[in-house]
Design brief:
- By secondary structure, the chain is an alpha+beta fold.
- Helix 2 packs across helix 3.
- The chain folds into 2 domains: about 120 residues, D-amino Acid Aminotransferase, Chain A, domain 1; about 140 residues, D-amino Acid Aminotransferase, Chain A, domain 2 (Alpha-Beta Barrel).
- Pyridoxal-5'-phosphate binds next to helix 5 and strand 14.
């Protein structure tokens, strides 16, 4: 990780190395925190943060789910993120706000532990260093939505992803794909899943997945391009019979999938619809398409929109 100068912590810019927390931090023990992954891109107007408002809203929602009463509202968090990127003079990269219960009482209930908020950012390039990736279906199932609030981005949910990444460690696979307990495709460890069949784009419906901001963006961009996009339960057989498949996410952007369980998808290379969506996405995040300029918050200009 490429260090920057400052991490915003509980209202103040703190030198990177000093942004520490106590070992009895409640979230460290029980996973009851919430976080976001956000990208800042170089654009013609200078550095610009992609869909910041949506990320802040999801963070605030995830905190509410955890009963975490942050002393900062959405507007202050939005401003703090812009301020942190600006203070670090970051031109492009990744932003990681995390809200967590600090140190106070020990016990599963987080009551008595002060909510804290930190915002770090750093220069970060592509998540996968490959043009397309090989995926393996995890032996673990996606966390059951009856066991949690699945549309919140909660730290503890990521144990599911950590276990799946252990399965593929030291193999040729680049990412794991989760099925639901009823054998439908859910999502990747940190990505949403799409297939293309006969020119139509399909993606699993909400319910078992994180409602990805990139997923929503791709669905909108594709529809605006006149492509048909359907939310539909997909089986592994549907995926293996697809012409194309790809992952979406803030970190992975649009990442083509070459194979699943060593079965080539289509001809095993990047298909035309995937290539088109990948290109449009890059044009939009870099501010090259006027109609979607509102997705970007230039760092020099706080574009907060009250909702
Ligand atoms: C489990 C999971 N699914 C999907 C996504 C994609 O979400 P987004 O596009 O909002 O980054 C992420 C990344 O945050 C994730 O962790």
């Amino acid at each position: 990780m490429k260090k920057t100068a400052w991490i915003w912590k509980n209202g103040q810019l703190t030198p990177w190395d000093d942004a520490q927390t106590h070992v009895l931090t409640h979230t460290l023990h029980y996973g009851g925190g919430a976080f976001e992954g956000i990208r800042v891109y170089e654009s013609q107007q200078g550095p610009a943060i992609f869909r910041l408002q949506e990320h802040v809203e999801r963070l605030v929602y995830s905190c509410q789910v955890l009963g975490m009463e942050l002393p900062w509202d959405a507007r202050s968090i939005f401003d703090a993120i812009v301020h942190t990127v600006s203070a670090n003079q970051l031109r492009y990269g990744y932003i990681r706000p995390i809200a967590y219960f600090g140190y106070g009482e020990l016990g599963v209930s987080a009551k008595g532990n002060p909510p804290e908020l930190a915002i770090a950012c750093w220069e970060w390039d592509a998540y996968f260093a490959h043009e397309f990736i090989d995926v393996k279906v995890s032996k673990y199932r996606r966390i059951n939505p009856e066991a949690t609030v699945i549309d919140a981005k909660i730290c503890g949910h990521y144990v599911n992803g950590i276990l799946s990444s252990l399965e593929i460690q030291n193999t040729h696979y680049h990412e794991a794909l989760f099925l639901t307990s009823d054998d439908h495709i859910a999502e990747g460890a940190g990505e949403n899943f799409f297939i293309v069949k006969d020119g139509v784009i399909y993606t699993p419906p909400l319910g078992h997945i994180l409602p990805g901001i990139t997923r929503a963006t791709i669905m909108q961009l594709a529809r605006d391009q006149g492509l048909k996009v359907l939310e539909k339960n997909l089986t592994l057989d549907d995926a293996l019979a697809a012409d194309e498949a790809f992952f979406t996410g803030t970190a992975v952007e649009v990442t083509p999938i070459g194979s699943i369980n060593d079965h080539a998808i289509g001809d095993g290379s990047v298909g035309p619809v995937t290539a088109r969506m990948k290109q449009i996405y890059q044009d939009v995040v870099h501010g090259r398409v006027k109609e979607y300029a509102h997705f970007l918050t230039p760092v020099g200009d706080n574009g907060y929109k009250a909702v």
